[in-house]
């Protein structure tokens, strides 16, 4: 519980929280296809605490709407700063928690930030997990997602394939992209089952005009498999780790 009050303080102080950015690439050419913002907490005494640890805490203690709002604000601010640098233009994708959708007003907060930072809606994408999309506490998600999408927000299903895994919902939800969970990538290319699943998801997505990002790509053999399978976007340590904005900029300046 000390950690909860520390987190409250971190939200006030502002300088303990930061966003790191992991780039996404075309697996054959290496071209930039997007980037994901990942929240980090530099605790003044305990050092780096993973979002896997403090996000569930924020959710349990009513801090998620505020924490989520911090992420939206700061991702927009960073996107605006990068407009005037050598960084190539690309969508920044942020992770959205269920509680942000039913405790906060994501729609108007996002609209406010886009306006304030003079961004196009297409510059900030939203990642929602299957469990968030199907969480009944958020009410009927379809009209809310349609509102976001009509305003131009790109929407992605995160950790695709690990949730309810009923494919039917994809037909009704207005999403643009699925992020194929790294559980299906880890044992490529050896696992015949995973190879079949990945190939099938790519074919289904093609038929539905959905983009696919394969997550957790760590090896050359995985990269090559995904090139051969026709995947057009990958994310993972093979290409890049999540990096602070300044490091990403420096790396980009060094090897554009
Ligand atoms: O970056 P890392 O592997 O430590 O992230 C662990 C988990 O925390 C992942 O599931 C990731 O989606 C989630 N996460 C990271 N940043 C955010 C964020 O800004 N908001 C939400 N809701 N989840 C995040
Ligand atoms: O749940 P979500 O997909 O948002 O989580 C993203 C998390 O995955 C980030 O915390 C990031 O650190 C982690 N990640 C990114 N690339 C790789 C990778 O190649 N391998 C592994 N094991 N984790 C990764
Ligand atoms: Mn994600
Ligand atoms: Na994911």
Describe the structure.
This protein has 256 residues and is of the alpha/beta class. The chain is built from 11 helices and 10 strands. The protein has one domain (2-254): TIM Barrel (Alpha-Beta Barrel), CATH 3.20.20.450. It is 43% helix and 20% strand. Strands 1, 2, 3, 4, 5, 6, 7, 8, 9 and 10 form a 10-stranded mixed beta sheet that branches. Strand 6 (155-160), helix 8 (169-172) and strand 7 (177-180) form a beta-alpha-beta unit. Helix 3 runs parallel beside helix 5 (106-116). The chain is globular and about 50 Å long. It starts with a helix and ends with a helix. The model has no long low-confidence stretch (mean pLDDT 93). One guanosine-5'-monophosphate binds at residues 22, 38, 95, 158-159, 182, 215-218, 235-237, 242. Residues 36, 95, 127, 158 line the site of manganese (II) ion (MN).
CATH A-level architecture: Alpha-Beta Barrel
* Weakly predicted, low-confidence segments: none
CATH homologous superfamily designation: EAL domain
Mean pLDDT: 93
Rg, rounded, reads 18 Å
How many domains is the backbone divided into?
1
Domain EAL: 1-256
Protein name: Phosphodiesterase
Entry keywords:
256 residues, TIM Barrel, ten-stranded mixed β-sheet, binds guanosine-5'-monophosphate, binds sodium ion, Phosphodiesterase
SSE layout:
Blueprint: H1 2-13, E1 17-25, E2 32-43, E3 47-49, H2 51-60, H3 64-82, E4 92-95, H4 98-103, H5 106-116, E5 124-129, H6 130-133, H7 141-150, E6 155-160, H8 169-172, E7 177-180, H9 192-207, E8 211-214, H10 220-228, E9 234-235, E10 243-244, H11 245-254
Parallel strand pairs: 2-4, 4-5, 5-6, 6-7, 7-8
Antiparallel strand pairs: 1-2, 1-9, 1-10, 2-3
Helix pairs in contact: 3-5
Bound molecules: guanosine-5'-monophosphate (2 copies), manganese (II) ion (MN) and sodium ion.
């Amino acid at each position: 519980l000390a950690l909860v009050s520390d987190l409250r303080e971190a939200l006030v102080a502002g300088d303990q929280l930061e966003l790191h950015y992991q780039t996404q690439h075309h697996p054959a050419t290496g071209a930039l296809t997007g980037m994901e913002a990942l929240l980090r907490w530099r605790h003044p005494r305990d050092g780096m605490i993973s979002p896997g640890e403090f996000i569930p805490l924020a959710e349990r203690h009513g801090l998620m709407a505020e924490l989520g709002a911090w992420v939206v604000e700061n991702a927009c601010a960073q996107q605006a700063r990068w407009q005037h640098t050598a960084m190539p233009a690309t969508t920044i994708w942020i992770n959205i928690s269920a509680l942000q959708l039913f405790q906060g007003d994501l729609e108007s907060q996002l609209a406010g930030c886009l306006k304030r930072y003079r961004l196009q809606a297409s510059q900030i994408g939203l990642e929602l997990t299957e469990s968030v999309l199907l969480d009944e506490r958020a009410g009927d998600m379809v009209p809310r997602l349609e509102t976001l999408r009509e305003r131009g927000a790109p929407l992605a299903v995160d950790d695709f394939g690990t949730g309810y895994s009923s494919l039917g919902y994809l037909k009704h939800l207005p999403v643009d992209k699925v992020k194929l969970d790294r559980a299906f990538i880890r044992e490529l290319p050896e696992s015949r089952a995973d190879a079949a699943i990945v190939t099938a998801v790519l074919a289904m997505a093609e038929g539905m005009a959905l983009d696919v990002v394969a997550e957790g790509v760590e090896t050359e053999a995985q990269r090559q498999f995904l090139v051969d399978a026709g995947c057009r976007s990958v994310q993972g340590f093979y290409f890049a780790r999540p990096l602070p904005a300044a490091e990403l900029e420096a790396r980009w300046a060094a090897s554009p």
